[in-house]
C-alpha cells in the first residue's frame, strides 16, 4: 500500500459518494465503481445482462465516442491519487482512461455538472486487464466531483479517489459538531497497532456494520496498552465523547481514557504536553458509550488509550470550535 492509498477514499459509497450519472451501464451497474471492499468474481455466473461482474461495464460501442461516469465525492477535498482498478475484466477492459475533477457548490444536477468547469487530473493513460492502476495527482485545489472517462468502452471494477478531506464548516458556525469526524477534516496521526484494521475507520462516517469497519489491534502480550491520536478538524473544546464498541463482542477493550493537547500549526507532536479529558473508564462490549467531559481547554489533538488492547468501532468527539 502506497502513502497515497493510505489516505481516505473520498469517493467511497459508505462515505456518502455516489455515481450520479454515466453514459451507459448496459452490462454492470455504475454504483459498483465506488463500493467498499475488493471486487469479487464467480465464473460462469450469468444473469439477464450476461456474466455478472462486480464493477461498471458498458456495452460495445459501434459509433464514435467514449464512455464516462460522474462521481460525487462523499467527502470533498484535495485529491492526491486515483486508482482505476480493472480487476476481473480481462477481455473487456478499456485500453485507456482519464480522470477530470470539478468543484461545484450545493447539490448540482447531472445536467449542471456536464456544464461545469472540469480540470484534467489524470491524462489519458493506458490500462491493462485485471490490474489496479495507481495515478498520482499534483493539484492543490479542492474538488467535489470527478469524471472517469474510458476509451472507448468496457469495464472498470473500482474507482478510488484518495486525498485529504477539506470540509466546508461554514454551515455549522456557532454550533456543536463532531470535531473528530473524518468528513469534517479530522485525521488520524498515529497509533500503536493496526494489525486487523486501520484506526482511520474509527472516525469514518456512519455506524460500523461489523468489526472490520472499526479499529482493531492484535492481542498484546507485553503488559502495555494500545493507543491512537487524532488531529481534530478544527481546534475546539470537546464536551461529549462517544466511544462505540459496537460489534466487538469478545475483543472490546476493558477500559479507555482520553487526553488532549494544543499544538499550534507546524508544532511537532513529539514532546506534547497532554491533559486529561476522560480518566481511565471501564467499557462494555458491543456498546455505544457517551461521556460528558468537564473542562474548557482548547484542544487540537486527542489521544485515545485503550487497555490493554482490542478495538473501537467509532470515536466521536462533540464540541465547539474555538480559538485559544
**CATH architectural arrangement of the largest domain:** Sandwich
Which stretches of 5+ consecutive residues score pLDDT under 50? none
Beta-strand share of residues:
35-45%
Q: Quick one: overall form?
A: globular
H/E element sequence: EEEEEEHEEEEEEEEEEEEEEE
Count of spatially separate domains: 2
Main β-sheet: number of strands, strand sense, barrel status? 8 strands, antiparallel
Cα gyration radius (Å):
22 Å
Distance linking N and C termini: 38 Å
Name of the CATH homologous superfamily of the largest domain: Galactose-binding domain-like
Quaternary organisation: single chain
Number of H- or I-type helical stretches: 1
Fraction in helix: under 10%
Number of strands: 21
CATH overall fold name of the largest domain: Jelly Rolls
Q: What class, by secondary structure content?
A: mainly beta
What is the highest CATH level, the class of the largest domain?
A: Mainly Beta
Q: Mean pLDDT, as a whole number?
A: 95
Family: Belongs to the allantoicase family.
Domain Allantoicase: 16-165, 185-321
Protein name: Probable allantoicase
Keywords: Hydrolase, Purine metabolism
Explain what this protein looks like in three dimensions.
There is one protein chain. By secondary structure, the protein is an all-beta fold. It folds into two domains: 13-165, Jelly Rolls (Sandwich), CATH 2.60.120.260; 170-321, Galactose-binding domain-like (Jelly Rolls), CATH 2.60.120. 2% of the residues lie in helices and 42% in strands. It has one helix at 110-114; strands spanning 18-22, 46-47, 50-51, 56-57, 67-85, 96-102, 119-126, 132-136, 142-151, 155-156, 158-165, 177-178, 187-191, 215-216, 226-244, 255-261, 275-282, 288-292, 299-307, 311-312, 314-321. The strands form five sheets. Strands 12, 13, 15, 16, 17, 18, 19 and 21 form an eight-stranded antiparallel sheet that branches. A hairpin with a 2-residue loop joins strand 2 (46-47) and strand 3 (50-51). The protein is globular, with a radius of gyration of 22 Å. The two termini are 38 Å apart. The model has no long low-confidence stretch (mean pLDDT 95).
